[in-house]
From TrEMBL:
The keyword Transmembrane helix applies. It is a single-pass membrane protein. The keyword Transmembrane applies. Its main location: membrane. Keywords: Membrane, Transmembrane, Transmembrane helix. Belongs to the LemA family. It is found in: Membrane. This is LemA protein. It comes from the Bacteria.
Amino acid sequence: MSTGWIVLGVIVVLALIAFSAYNRLVALSQRVGQAFADIDVQLKQRHDLIPNLVETVKGYASHERGTLDDVIKARNSAMSAQGPAQVSAAETQLSGALGRLIALSEAYPDLKANANFQQLASELSDLENKIAASRRFFNNAVQEYNTGIQQLPAALFAGMFGFTKKDFFDLGASRTEVETVPQVKF
């Protein structure tokens, strides 16, 4: 009879550990989802700002059609991207195109002095800072989640519950592209 109670006690303890691990992993997964949603909101704000910026630049640098078209194509690609990996890659392309667009202002003093352009560039800069902070928060949430599914006792149950590793929001191999200052030549 006492062996039965011991076995029942072990089963109850294992069930409590499994429930606890499951609930913790659900909370971590939700945090990752919420962090990605925060990035998505700010990226949408950036996407909405870009057409105004392009139109402002068009008035001063209409012969820079290739740069303007690149920005619009990159924006459209970024808007249709799904999931952290695709969004990250598309946003990297968009950041590079925006860098080239902003670099045009150096070549056009009238554009650089335009109040509308200054306001849009300032808003874009502010959004870029917010996006960078959100990316850091997202990557921290992913790191905690990935660590959580690999630590005991959750590692024993994570696969069974369907928890799999999540990808970081990273600039990846094109990091050097983004960090390189664009050069404008005429």
